[in-house]
Design brief:
The chain is an alpha/beta fold. It contains eleven helices and nine strands. It folds into two domains: 139 residues, Rossmann fold (3-Layer(aba) Sandwich); 156 residues, Rossmann fold (3-Layer(aba) Sandwich). The longest helix has 24 residues. Bound molecules: N-carbamoyl-L-aspartate (NCD).
Amino acid sequence: MKRSVIDILDLSVEELNGLMDTAEDIIAHPDDYADRCRRKKLVTLFFEPSTRTRMSFEAAMYELGGNVLSMTDAASSSASKGESVADTARVISCYADIIAMRHPKEGAALVAANNATVPVINAGDGGHCHPTQTLADLLTIRREKGGFSGLTVGLCGDLKFGRTVHSLINALSRYDGVRYVLISPEELKLPSYVKEEAIKPRGIPYEQTESLEEAMPKLDVLYMTRVQKERFFNEEDYLRLKDSYILDPAKMTLGRRDLIVMHPLPRVNEISVAVDRDPRACYFKQVLNGKYMRMSLILKLLEEAAS
Ligand code: NCD
């Protein structure tokens, strides 16, 4: 049965765990997966700039032995002629076995999924969700920390527009014993709908602060984010807020020895390059984990579509 993944909540906790288990198996036995998607085609439809997410999907499909068709530039596609997302999804379904789509508008991936005849994976819809980044994040935390239970997770930066933050909180809140420290300027606080839907109903402990220094010693995981320039209504606000937090070696000295530092990338200024040498920096491992989790998800959705 065809099934799409638009929101991380489309996957149950059992399924998230299963996807991580498959990713671990892929890491251990890559050759066993090298032919699993032979003669299948992934179409990547990216209406918004991306390097790692699109290439991660593409590399994932190649490593499964499948093929890729990709639309990288919305300006050169029929969208520029005024074609609707619904029509694009119907048309692309004639060529693709599975679609990964990124779009600047919240809800666009859902519209595509409702009109496509093949599975659609949301590769980011505006400031809303980014479920496959969350899959990368979950595998990274599980590999580095051994699980999720009892972790204090600090999320720092643009918690308002950062879709990776929204999806990660939705996912982690379903694991027991997680708590949050939400670190942001007043203007970039976590939207209340995320708090109301994911954090409060489960009674998850959380605190909000503007101070990264104050939060540092409490954290098991620090998830840094970029201030999302493209979602601001005026440049002045962006310029004022863009360097609110810069993680540097001096701040790292305040962190625990077993802290892990994550970032969905691209980074701008929020983590200084000198932190890359710190063994607690995990953001490049996160990129690799993203590819394995996308392999795992593509396999699952294609298998389900065939049954
Ligand atoms: C993120 C995104 O697109 O939301 N990037 C990514 O997919 N790895 C984070 C960002 O752009 O800041």
